[in-house]
Amino acid sequence: MMKRYLITAILTVAACTAGYASYSHYEQNPWTRDGQVRADIIQITPRVTGTIVDIAVKDNQRVARGDLLFVVDPKPYQVALLQAKAAQEQALALLNKAENELSRATGLEARSHGAVSTLTLDNFKTAVESAAANVSLAHAQVEQAELNLSYTRVVAPTDGYITNLRHHIGAQVIANSPVVALIDENSFWVEGFFKETDIADLDVEQPARVVLLSDQNVTLEGEVESIGYGISKTDGSTGNALLPNVNPNFQWIRLAQRIPVKVKLNAVPEDVQLRVGATASVQVHK
């Protein structure tokens, strides 16, 4: 009988010791299960309007910087470039004509003083200046047309993953309207939401450990990069009929707010794939 009591007492002490050790470890090293994987998301936006005539990628495909994503019908912009070049040639011809007329008038005035009035010479000079300005304008229009033609080929601005591709060949895209998302594979970080009572002793560059819910056998090492300075207010926001939203709460319960802490990952194993929005546990070692 005494042996059973002794075993029970030993197990109780061991459990209490383990619990106290775990509590002390948590107190010294804040931990939260409310973490999420984040990354920079680039909205791929065409610079010109038109019909998609070719799509070079598939949904959820990895792409490298400079890879072709899709092509907007280039024909209208090829025609616009030809028109701009024709207008440039016409402007050059008019400039050449104005310079010849000024040259003849200047030569005649040099041979016979008073043969050409000062007003006429001024008009010839003004015509040359105006023609030169038109040439500059035509040159700018050619460059703009060349840019627009180059914009018909939309390429990846960085390495990453194409996500939520819903367009297809024949779809109409509008300039400056997002078409698809590209997740920058070099920008992943983890954002842990810690209780405000836990962040008093947190500081930048403190080491942190991250465990993904999708791969709990791997611990990722990182460090605190920054701590949020504000969160959105819930109570008092405008609801229906322009009335404030106020959530009911118990007066004797005061819940700690959650403050976002950004954790920069030092290295990610090749067999671990980070995904935006994935759940993670974060522990900061003080």
From TrEMBL:
Keywords: Coiled coil, Membrane, Signal, Transmembrane, Transmembrane helix
InterPro entries: AaeA-lik-b-barrel, MdtA-like_BSH, MdtA-like_HH, MFP_Efflux_Pump, RND_pump_MFP
Membrane-protein topology: Single-pass membrane protein
Multidrug resistance protein MdtA-like alpha-helical hairpin domain location: 81-152
Domain spans labelled Multidrug resistance protein MdtA-like barrel-sandwich hybrid: 41-181
Gene Ontology, cellular component aspect: membrane
Subcellular location: Membrane
Transmembrane segments: none
Occurrences of domain p-hydroxybenzoic acid efflux pump subunit AaeA-like beta-barrel (ranges): 187-285
Superkingdom of origin: Bacteria
Position of the signal peptide: 1-21
Database matches in Pfam families: Beta-barrel_AAEA (PF25963), BSH_RND (PF25917), HH_MFP_RND (PF25876)
Stretches assigned to coiled coil: 81-108
Primary location recorded for the protein, binned into one broad class: membrane
Family listed: Belongs to the membrane fusion protein (MFP) (TC 8.A.1) family.
Name of the featured protein: HlyD family secretion protein
Organism of derivation: Vibrio chaetopteri
